[in-house]
Design goal:
Elements: E1 7-8, E2 16-18, E3 33-38, E4 43-48, H1 55-58, E5 61-63, H2 70-83, H3 85-94, E6 99-106, E7 112-117, E8 120-125, H4 136-149, E9 152-156, H5 157-162, E10 171-172, H6 214-226
Antiparallel strand pairs: 1-10, 2-6, 2-9, 3-4, 4-6, 5-9, 7-8
This protein binds flavin-adenine dinucleotide (FAD).
Flavin-adenine dinucleotide is lined by residues 33, 168-169, 201-202, 212-215, 217.
Length: 236
């Protein structure tokens, strides 16, 4: 009964800054994540790049519109693009070479629910701890950094135009719990009520880690595997 509950986004927000034309290749020729700044007890931000040939990832970056209603943001986006066609062209020209993502994560408790409706899996806000559409400090940092380097603050297309959040860190939805009343799997990742069925991926993580999750997912999966008894010789 808890399947789909506590689906989380790691409270992640990813605006970006497009650096000015003439920026050298050293920007994208580096380790992806090189710095991490803690802004408060629950919030930190990393700068990251995708490398030189990742335009598929950065083509969805666009003018960062200010928070507001969907209609207001969509109109503001359209108006800014009409006023600054050169910036639109420069964005396409920049590809991923001049885009620096600002990856904000928080370990606060926000969540969505995944529900099956109309033949599709959909997300809806959890009534108790909804995921805010915006993190004001993320806009502030993107604009400040863009000012400092003479760049352009960028937002994800779906966020800037349609007021929709996104995450590259989906967590939860089949979380570890003490019983079937509060989780889908037990501490050894065994699905409550089923024999020999385990879940070993990000869906079992019960909280927003507030940090890049893949090593935690791997460590928990390794721990779960260590609890699986070795096959006996008679099993063939
Ligand atoms: C652009 C990007 C950058 C990231 N960078 C980092 C980083 O630097 N550090 C970090 O820690 N994390 C990073 N992450 C997050 C990290 O990649 C994920 O948290 C992690 O991979 C999730 O692992 P998972 O096993 O839960 O799911 P996944 O790795 O998504 O694995 C799910 C698998 O299930 C398969 N699948 C889906 N549906 C079906 C189906 N119906 N039948 C069969 N197979 C199916 C998929 O093909 C996939 O192989 C990044 C994510 C993105 C998108």
């Amino acid at each position: 009964s808890r399947l789909g509950e506590l689906f989380r986004t790691n409270s992640e927000y990813v605006p970006a800054v497009r650096l000015p034309a003439g920026t050298g290749p050293e920007v994208s020729h580096r380790v992806s994540i090189t710095s991490d700044v803690r802004l408060d007890e629950h919030t930190h931000v990393q700068t990251l790049v995708y490398g030189e040939h990742a335009a598929m990832m950065t083509n969805q970056l666009t003018h960062l519109t200010r928070p507001g209603s969907t209609r207001r943001r969509a109109l503001s986006w359209l108006w800014t693009n009409l006023r600054h066609p050169g910036s639109v062209v420069d964005g396409l020209r920049a590809g991923s070479r001049r885009q620096v993502m600002l990856l904000f994560m928080q370990d606060v408790s926000t969540s969505l629910r995944v529900v099956w409706r109309g033949g599709r899996a959909r997300t809806e806000q959890s009534p108790d701890e909804p995921v805010p559409a915006h993190l004001p400090v993320s806009h502030e940092v993107a604009r400040t950094l863009a000012d400092r380097v003479g760049g352009v603050p960028q937002g994800q297309l779906l966020d800037s135009v349609a007021n929709l959040g996104m995450t590259a860190h989906p967590l939860g939805g089949a979380v570890i719990g003490a019983s079937a009343a509060d989780g889908v799997v037990d501490a050894d990742h065994r699905v409550f009520g089923y024999d020999n069925l385990m879940i070993c991926d990000g869906s079992v993580i019960p909280s927003n880690l507030g940090t890049n999750p893949s090593l935690t997912i791997t460590a928990l999966s390794e721990l779960a595997m260590s609890k699986v008894p070795a096959a006996s010789a008679s099993c063939g």
